[in-house]
Automatic annotation (TrEMBL):
Segments forming domain TECR-like N-terminal: 88-163
Source organism of this protein record: Acinonyx jubatus
Gene Ontology cellular-component annotations: endoplasmic reticulum membrane
Topology in the lipid bilayer: Multi-pass membrane protein
Protein name, per record: Very-long-chain enoyl-CoA reductase
Subcellular location: Endoplasmic reticulum membrane
Length: 391
């Protein structure tokens, strides 16, 4: 008795797939045949037509040959797993392809989250949040809610594991990132000792704009902290711990740099005085209201406790009408707020912070815009990622 194909060969994702490629010659040779017998050809043709080109290479054995196989596992590789029957799941290291775990009798309706929990039992150092399981070693991570029997796998599902590194909860990340700038800015505002020289300790600026800037800056970060706690409904529970160092350096560093100049005893107020400050304040307030309105609209798209993603549309709130033109109006408003703050304070580090923030948010907005286009066929065509009609 002959086994035609083994699971290692049939699931080599590194090889480019040929949707109508050559027959598995070795398989026919193993049967002592140089080519498929005539009766097998129609079946082969049928089998190939059924394989979408996006799927990884597999062997679909024609029905006529199944009697030659000893191992039913081999003969059905590539066929969808029989509905309702327990499946086997093997987990390989995505880098080394070393087999890390073999799970027997997994329920076909098990989710990836449940498989992660089973994997954790044998490898407690990799708790579920730090696991990424994929169908392809270099492919995208499967979602926790993906169901085994709906994946394009055979009776033995091969999943590839990547360690995402130590994780930390999003809420902790945001609280740390946002509480830092709030606190740091106030140190400079109150001119605590060892910043500007002894004679300025705990003195106060004589310029109104400096006090206004402190109010705006603090308001912005308090708003973000409250939104993190009470508004956003994040779909990911955690993020890699190493990101927090990078993000905190960015937020805390810029806050210190901006605050140092704005609260400096030798700070020069804006060129056009009160008029410039009033205009800037109006931009800042409008953009803050806009940003908050978009966050509320995004929150309302997702029922509590779910991870649903929908196309956001304008609501009755006029601030959300920007959704007609851009995919991420919250970023547009965020950038607008910082431009307002830069005009108000006329301070170079603030302008640089706005520019860096704009660059980063444009990259994210483009990614989110692409995802919307990919996910929703009826996505409004007029929208741009972040700047109406431009970008
Ligand atoms: N100054 C800066 O450098 C800077 C940089 C970045 C962010 N920010 C500020 O921080 C805010 C939040 O940033 P973010 O990157 O987390 O914004 P975001 O990706 O737009 O997400 C905001 C919230 O809405 C959810 N959401 C987004 N699109 C959704 C959809 N189609 N359906 C359902 N829910 C959806 C998100 O959930 P998910 O968890 O699923 O994404 C998240 O909880 C920004 O709006 C901005 O004000 C500032």
């Amino acid at each position: 008795m002959i086994c035609l194909w083994d699971s290692q060969n049939s699931w080599d994702f590194s090889k480019p797939r040929e949707p109508c490629g050559p027959e598995p010659a070795e398989a026919w040779a193993a049967l002592g045949l140089s080519r498929p017998p005539p009766e097998a050809r129609p079946a082969l043709h049928w089998a190939r037509r059924e394989v979408p080109p996006c799927l990884p290479p597999r062997v679909f054995l024609p029905p006529v040959l199944s009697r030659h196989c000893v191992h039913s596992k081999a003969s059905v590789l590539g066929d969808p797993a029989p509905r309702g029957r327990p499946q086997e799941v093997e987990i390989l290291d995505a880098k080394t392809r070393e087999k890390l775990c073999f799970l027997d009798k997994v329920e076909p309706h098990a989710t990836i989250a449940e498989i992660k929990n089973l994997f954790t039992k044998t490898h407690p150092q990799w708790y579920p949040a730090r696991q990424s399981l994929r169908l392809d070693p270099k492919g995208k991570s499967l979602k926790d809610e993906d169901v085994l029997q709906k994946l394009p796998v055979g009776t033995t599902a091969t999943l590839y594991f990547r360690d995402l590194g130590a994780q930390i909860s999003w809420v902790t990340v945001f609280l740390t990132e946002y509480a830092g700038p709030l606190f740091i800015y106030l140190l400079f505002y109150f001119r605590v000792p060892f910043i500007y020289g002894h004679k300025y300790d705990f003195t106060s600026s004589r310029h109104t704009v400096v006090h206004l800037a402190c109010i705006c800056h603090s308001f912005h970060y308090i708003k973000r902290l409250l939104e993190t706690l009470f508004v956003h409904r994040f779909s990911h529970g955690t993020m890699p711990l190493r990101n927090i160092f990078k993000n905190c350096t960015y937020y805390w560093g810029f806050a210190a740099w901006m605050a140092y100049y704005i609260n400096h005893p030798l700070y020069t107020p804006p060129t056009y005085g009160a008029q410039q400050v009033k205009l800037a304040l109006a931009i800042f307030v409008i953009c803050q209201l806009g940003n908050f309105s978009i966050h509320m609209a995004l929150r309302d798209l997702r029922p509590a406790g779910s991870k649903t993603r929908k196309i956001p549309y304008p609501t009755k709130n006029p601030f959300t009408w920007l959704f007609l033109l851009v995919s991420c109006p919250n970023y547009t408003y965020e950038v607008g707020s910082w431009i307002g703050f830069a005009i108000m304070t006329q301070c170079l580090p603030v302008a640089l912070f706005s520019l860096v923030g704009f660059t980063q948010m444009t990259i994210w907005a483009k990614g989110k815009h692409r995802s919307y286009l990919k996910e929703f066929r009826d996505y409004p065509p007029l929208r741009m990622p972040i700047i109406p009609f431009l970008l």
